[in-house]
TrEMBL record, chain A:
Source organism (scientific name): Pseudoalteromonas arctica A 37-1-2
Family stated for the protein in its record: Belongs to the adrenodoxin/putidaredoxin family.
UniProt superkingdom: Bacteria
Cofactor(s) in the UniProt record: [2Fe-2S] cluster
Stretches assigned to the 2Fe-2S ferredoxin-type domain: 2-102
Pfam families listed in its UniProt record: Fer2 (PF00111)
Record carries keyword Ligase: no
Gene Ontology MF terms: 2 iron, 2 sulfur cluster binding; electron transfer activity; metal ion binding
Xref: Gene3D superfamilies: 3.10.20.30
PANTHER family noted in UniProt: FERREDOXIN-2, MITOCHONDRIAL (PTHR23426:SF65), FERREDOXIN/ADRENODOXIN (PTHR23426)
Keyword Iron applies: yes
Keyword vocabulary terms for this entry: 2Fe-2S, Iron, Iron-sulfur, Metal-binding, Ubiquinone
Protein name as catalogued: Ferredoxin, 2Fe-2S
Annotated gene: fdx
GO terms under biological process: P450-containing electron transport chain
Length: 102, 425
């Protein structure tokens, strides 16, 4: 079980919890604004962009080649950017706070 | 919800949306996000909670239990005050009285209407196709368009002893399904009418790559085949071609294209010509009736011609454009078409439209990792990338921003693809 918080572009904090699936699915199931997931979670659309804190980024891990290339589609990309369709919901991310990029 | 810059009367106005797939659902939520306060009714004849369609032929088919991936959870509709009416078919639009009629002859009034009816699978009139049934008389030929199609296909696959499937049509739906069937241990034959698969939508280079890929994975890929009939013996079906060849099947998947769901629009005397004609803000020939997604045809300012797109991207982008205009009278920049397909361990990403190219540059980065750059003289029209998102992203930036691509860099594999070098004049 993981409990996480999304901070949207308009600074709304949305606390959600889940135990499986991708972080994108969890966010869109809870209607987090700015997480569209238009491609259904196959790393093809870059509409589920989030920022992690440097510590959380280290813990979650770096994006693979396709994901980091896809992140370049977004002008707002930083070194702590991830596409949350590529992050699994697990205890590993419990307690983390993510900022939604768009 | 931001309530600034509302259209003054939106509170009293009612929007009815026909079709709750990628286009209709995104439109409804976008309209709310734009601050629309009026009633939003979203209708669809499909009883299933609106779901992502592209995974049907991929993830959905391959997962143990066929479960759809919802576009939004039920609660989101309630929270956004979107009246989602599933299993409701619209049978008529009266544009003068602004009323739609449902199957049960109930009427629904609208101030603004959105037609997001998409398209349906085309089932060709092949002799014997409709007799493709199992011992209980259950149909054993399928399209791959809806959640119930995926459920039925999965059931047919589980029930078949030899797991022999014939796919009619070597388009994206057929090929993605082939890849899923192979993953599920089926014996797959793909029968294509043209000399090459995907010949209508891509170049020989991409067609050849996918042909080799599917053959290497064990698909019996048959091209230039004219199917004459389907014969049946003991619950086994035989697809027979004009050259005498014959392919056995436990069940048949049809992927030969679509029919646009434009009948409602035609009957309502909206302008329909190879799609429901819409302007830059997705209005039809009637200013209070909008249309979005696969069923529309629009004049694309990037490619300077009328185009019809069957894609999630187009449905989602048109939904945004129409919602912004309806709620706030805002217009948006023209959207660039993009597509993707996942087959086996390969991700194909396409940006732009290649039609009209006179030069292709292929960059092979590594085995199974390459990109095709389609030019008309110096204008980049399209990039197709296989397991190489970098090329897809650079291509997107080049086309969107109208940047000139340095072909020498592109042609020189010793220079890694990167923004500054590639976009120098």
């Amino acid at each position: 079980m993981a409990k996480v918080i999304f901070i949207t572009k308009t600074n709304d904090a949305v606390e959600v919890e889940g135990d499986s699936g991708s972080l994108m699915e969890l966010a869109s199931a809870n209607g987090v604004a700015g997480i569209d997931g238009d491609c259904g979670g196959v790393c093809s659309c870059a509409t589920c962009h989030i920022y992690l804190t440097p510590d959380d980024f280290k813990k979650v891990g770096t994006p693979d080649e396709i994901e980091s290339d896809m992140l370049e589609l977004d002008d707002n990309v930083t070194q702590y950017s991830r596409l949350c369709c590529q992050i699994e919901v697990s205890e590993n991310i419990d307690g983390m706070t993510f900022r939604v990029a768009n | 919800m931001q309530n600034t810059q509302l259209e003054p009367n939106s509170l009293q106005q009612s929007v009815v949306i026909i079709g709750a797939s990628h286009g209709g659902v995104n439109f409804a939520f976008n309209l709310r996000q734009q601050g629309w306060l009026g009633k939003i009714t979203l209708l669809d004849s499909d009883p299933e909670l609106p779901y992502h369609r592209p995974p049907l032929s991929k993830k959905t088919l391959q997962s143990l239990e066929v479960k759809s991936i919802p576009l939004k959870v039920q609660k989101s509709y309630t929270d956004s005050h979107i009246d989602l009416c599933l299993g409701k078919r619209v049978i008529a639009i009266n544009k003068d009285n602004k009323i739609v009629t449902l199957e049960n002859n109930k009427h629904l009034a609208f101030d603004k209407l959105v037609i997001a009816t998409g398209c349906s699978a085309f089932i060709p009139p092949i002799t014997g196709l409709s007799e493709t049934v199992d011992e209980y008389g259950t149909s054993q030929y399928f399209a791959m368009r809806t959640h119930s199609d995926a459920v039925a296909i999965k059931k047919a696959l589980s029930a078949s002893t030899n797991k022999e499937v014939v796919i009619i049509g070597g388009g994206y739906i057929g090929l993605e399904s082939a890849s899923s069937f192979i993953a599920l241990g089926a014996k797959v034959t793909v029968i294509e009418k043209q000399e090459k698969i995907l010949s209508r939508v891509t170049s020989s280079a991409m067609s050849d790559f996918l042909t080799d890929l599917h053959k290497a994975k064990g698909v019996d890929l048959q091209t230039a085949k004219d199917i004459v009939q389907i014969k049946h013996t003991n619950n086994k079906h035989y697809v027979q071609c004009s050259d005498g060849s014959e392919y056995p099947a436990d069940f048949i998947l049809i992927g030969v294209g679509v029919r646009l769901n434009t009948q409602l629009a035609t009957d309502a005397e909206l302008v329909v010509d190879q799609g429901i004609k819409v302007n830059d803000v997705c209005q039809t020939s009637h200013p209070d009736i909008y249309s979005i997604g696969d069923c529309t045809i629009h004049f694309n300012k990037i490619y300077n011609r009328w185009i019809r797109l069957e894609s999630v991207q187009n449905a989602v982008d048109q939904a945004k454009v129409a919602a912004q205009f309806l709620a706030k009278n805002n217009t948006s920049a023209p959207a660039l078409p993009w597509f993707w397909s996942d087959q086996y361990e390969y991700k194909l990403q396409i940006v732009g439209l290649s039609q009209g190219y006179n030069e292709i540059i292929k960059r092979q980065e590594a085995p199974g990792q390459f990109s095709l750059w389609y030019f008309n003289n110096d204008t980049l029209l399209c990039v197709e990338a296989v397991n190489y998102a970098k090329a897809y992203v650079l291509g997107t930036q080049a086309i969107k921003q109208g940047l000139k691509v340095n072909k020498q860099v592109l042609n020189n594999l010793t220079i890694a693809l990167a923004k500054p070098q590639l976009f120098q004049a």
